[in-house]
Design brief:
Layout (H helix, E strand, L loop, with lengths): L8 H6 L3 H7 L10 E3 L15 E4 L2 E3 L3 E3 L8 H9 L3 E4 L5 H12 L18 H10 L7 E4 L5 E5 L13 H4 L1 E2 L5 E3 L7 H11 L5 E5 L5 E6 H10 L17 E4 L11 H13 L4 E5 L6 H13 L5 E6 L2 H10 L3 E4 L9 H4 L6 H15 L2 E5 L5 H8 L4 E4 L1 H4 L8 E4 L2 E7 L4 H5 L22 E5 L4 H19 L4 H7 L2 E3 L2 H7 L12
Parallel strand pairs: 4-5, 4-17, 5-12, 9-10, 12-13, 13-14, 14-15, 15-16, 16-17
Antiparallel strand pairs: 1-21, 2-3, 6-7, 7-8, 10-11, 18-19, 19-20
Helix pairs in contact: 3-4, 7-8, 9-10, 11-13, 14-17
Length: 521
């Protein structure tokens, strides 16, 4: 009986592995729609495939999808949604440094079980002041521990009394007194604080908050039942949230190769900001510019590597093997590949440079093997099939436009002709560079009239939530892996076989000769 696991000799004449295929196409730069993958014998069901990927020692994602560090894509809300689904969000740097740190804090303090530094109120405050704080800082909760000036627990201010009708009352007159607040001593938490809190909530029906104190009754943390329940439910999920060793959501932040007024690399500013991000628990820093194969980027990566030896670093963007070699030697763990493939990027038109994405990924992936770095495909992703093709050569993908219409994205929403749209712009657009991203493209931020934009401002039709978008993307990735008989991403890279597609073949692949009444989404 023939071995079903191998291609027929006829197949091998048409469907080629990456090295043979791309070398045969070396005269032509290809992108996702130029190529299709050949199916293989499979005993793998799509639902059984594993999508875990590694981007550095100590940085593993449960799905290989990252939201782009763009100012209309990723801030705290998007990063939280990505991490809860097993991916990663890169918070953009087109904002004041303090705000970026604040966005990171919101992610790292989101539902991680024990809130070690809960927001507190003082007994002399008015309820109205608490309401103002909630609105100003956009809190989604309204229950707060009450402590004195030394940090000693006085009681709990319940959300039931944090209402405008009680605005003129003092917190001290509305709190639940200390004697009625449930607490646990921090020394009794043991090696598994979540399990300890879970037992408490099971034994105390109707209680939703558990405060952690020390022997002197000083507040040291807070458990909520909803947090604990969500964490315990994660254990049975196929794609678990991406969390660090302290059970906080993973989050990355991007920085630029900032220069001072004299045109020199502003080393002190970069290191101080990176240090503040590390202190807040950032899991990876991305040095993001349009041209990663440059001295400024290399020096920034080397400086961060020297200052933070264990910190995972992503750098980019490049489209050449030499660029991967350079950034790898400077200390990058992962390299972003992509110059001009994004739907709102005009680098190839304005500057006349850039390589179509699939060829760029192949060239860079060959260099990555020798440098022991990981490859991230950045840009040009329009559908799940593009991600499958990208993952045959890369370890993860970065998506911008796919998430730009989601409610979690920070873009401004507007209504046109009865349809809702969100603002979506390239980081090389004039508006984005005026807001601070000009350094990403090698221009001075205070000289906007001389800047050559390498991106456009656009609108994206409002799309479903990140949860739903990712569910469709993950389903597509798993289907592709099932067709290739790949149980995991390593097998997908090993088994992929490629063939060129004609323009007629591209049309054939999409719905045709019908009137669509319902799209795939």
């Amino acid at each position: 009986m023939a071995d079903k696991r191998h291609l027929n000799t006829i197949d091998t004449e048409f469907f080629q592995p990456a090295d043979a295929f791309f070398l045969a196409q070396s005269h032509m730069a290809l992108t996702y729609d130029d190529v299709t993958l050949a199916t293989l014998y499979s005993d793998i069901l799509p639902r059984d495939t594993q999508l875990e990927t590694q981007l550095a020692d100590g940085l593993r994602l449960n799905i290989p999808v990252i939201s782009a560090d763009m100012d209309t894509v990723t801030e705290a809300r998007m990063a939280i949604a990505m991490a809860l689904n097993g991916g990663l969000g890169l918070i953009h740097y087109n904002m004041p440094e303090r705000q970026q740190i604040s966005e990171l804090n919101r992610v790292k303090n989101h539902v991680h079980g024990l809130i070690q530094d809960p927001i507190k109120v003082a007994p002399e405050q008015l309820i109205g002041e608490v309401l103002e704080m909630i609105e100003k800082r956009r809190f989604a909760f309204s229950t707060f521990p009450v402590v004195d000036a030394t940090g000693r627990l006085l009681g709990l201010l319940s959300g039931h009394v944090v209402k405008p009708r009680y605005a003129k009352r003092r917190v001290a007159d509305a709190l639940t007194p200390r004697s009625q607040v449930h607490t646990v001593n921090q020394k009794d938490l043991g090696a598994n604080p979540i399990a300890c809190a879970d037992r408490f909530f099971t034994d105390h029906p109707g209680i939703h908050k558990l405060l952690v104190v020390d022997e002197r009754d000083h507040l040291h943390g807070l458990f909520t039942m909803s947090d604990v329940e969500r964490i315990t439910q994660e254990r049975s999920a196929q794609f678990k949230p991406a969390r660090d060793s302290h059970f906080r959501l993973l989050c990355g932040a991007s920085v630029s190769a900032t220069r001072n007024a004299f045109g020199d690399l502003d080393r002190e500013r970069i290191l101080n900001h990176a240090g503040a991000l590390v202190d807040r628990g950032v899991d990876v820093i991305a040095v993001s510019t349009a041209h990663g194969h440059s001295r400024g980027v290399g020096e920034t990566v080397q400086m961060l590597r020297d200052a933070f030896p264990a910190l995972p670093l992503i750098a980019g963007n490049v489209t050449s093997a030499a660029g991967v070699d350079y950034l790898g030697e400077c200390g990058a763990n992962a390299v972003k590949v992509g110059q001009g493939p994004g739907s709102i990027c005009t680098t190839r038109i304005v500057a006349g440079v850039g390589i179509p994405q699939l060829t760029a990924l192949y060239v860079c992936s060959r260099a990555a093997r020798n440098k022991n770095v990981f490859i991230i495909a950045d840009g040009g992703i329009n559908k799940a099939g593009d991600i499958v093709k990208a993952l045959t050569l890369a370890n993860a993908v970065i998506c911008g436009g796919v998430f730009g219409g989601c409610p979690e994205a920070p873009g401004q929403m507007m209504e046109i002709g009865g349809k809702l749209y969100k603002q979506y712009r390239g980081m090389g657009s004039l508006a984005s560079m005026k807001a601070g991203s000009a350094a990403r493209y090698g221009h001075a931020t205070n000289n906007a009239q001389k800047v050559a934009p390498e991106g456009v401002e656009a609108l994206k039709e409002v799309s479903p939530s990140v949860d739903r978008v990712l569910a469709q993307l993950i389903g597509g990735i798993q289907s592709g892996m099932g067709y290739l008989g790949a149980a995991n991403l390593a097998q997908l890279r090993e088994k992929a076989r490629y063939i060129r597609v004609s323009s007629a073949g591209q049309r054939e692949a999409a719905p045709h000769d019908v009137v669509e009444v319902k799209t795939g989404s």
